[in-house]
From TrEMBL:
Keywords: Metal-binding, Oxidoreductase, Zinc. Its cofactor is Zn(2+). Belongs to the zinc-containing alcohol dehydrogenase family. Signal peptide: none annotated. It comes from Streptomyces pseudovenezuelae. SUPFAM superfamilies: GroES-like (SSF50129), NAD(P)-binding Rossmann-fold domains (SSF51735). This is Zinc-dependent alcohol dehydrogenase family protein. Residues 7-336 form the Enoyl reductase (ER) domain. It holds the Pfam family ADH_N. The keyword Metal-binding applies. PANTHER family: DEHYDROGENASE, ZINC-CONTAINING, PUTATIVE (AFU_ORTHOLOGUE AFUA_2G02810)-RELATED (PTHR42813:SF2), ZINC-TYPE ALCOHOL DEHYDROGENASE-LIKE (PTHR42813).
Amino acid sequence: MRATIIHAPGDIRVENAPEPTITAPTDAVIRTVATCVCGSDLWSYRGVLPIAEPWAIGHEYVGVVEEVGSEVSTVRPGQFVIGSFVASDNTCPNCRAGYQTSCLHAQQVNGAQAEYVRIPIADGTLVATPEQPDEELIPSLLTLSDVMGTGWYAARAAEIRPGSTAVVVGDGAVGLSGVIAAKELGAERIIAMSRHESRQKLALEFGATDIVTERGEEGVARVKELTNGVGADSVLECVGTQESMRQGLQSARPGGNVGFVGFPHGTQIDGQELFFSHVGLRGGLAPVRSYLPDLIQRVFDGRINPGKVFDLSLPLDQAAEGYKAMDQRRAIKTLLRP
């Protein structure tokens, strides 16, 4: 089969690789219908995360079940499925509490930018759609494997309530998905922080009511101005830098909450400052498996269309161009078709 392999920073190749097989009775093998490049993939591509040796990259996927192990009972060959980027049994105490990415038996899913992918612990990881989806739904369903579920977790972690005011820091695919989540959860005012016109337009289409182009202290001041000097009830931090975290914490009102889902790089939080701010902080790897049934139904019902974050679609063999386009910010998110 064809699979995307990262060899070194900036060195993405689509190569021949062995097709995956069932290695445990709880495995499933799916034929990938669509996959994509994640913003977190760029950390390796840019050399921020070390690459000890070439490895098969990619963790977002939708596809059709080809084969299942002898102990798999919740999905069967021929079904269209979506799964999380972390495999989980969905039965351990952490899973039952809604934190499947902290499953006691968690395994990272890798190698999804390929024609086929093996999914461990399939019963707890994969969710079948109610029927075979129409072609136009596939991009939106693909976002549920990570970015839409991550944006949803950010909104939930920030405790958005009906009638509240939310700020979204970050205008990538996760931040834009967070705008959708904020609207779906009932936020009355949604302030999107973005400097890019195309992303601003999409944020407004998804439900943002205000756009803030300023960053840092100026961005915080603008948020305070829009909220009568108080700050937001909920802030979704979807970047992961020191500046974005500080901007998020300072944009929240006393008693407000920050949900942070941007993978932290060099981020430090002043404990004393947080103590006196009365701002709540929750984040981590998004437990997207917890939200899959609900989000799948919202896509099928036409309530949400997060697939619009894909502004570049390429055949799998052109994965290297998809990475380059995202790295150069010529694309928000690249969809790949095997």
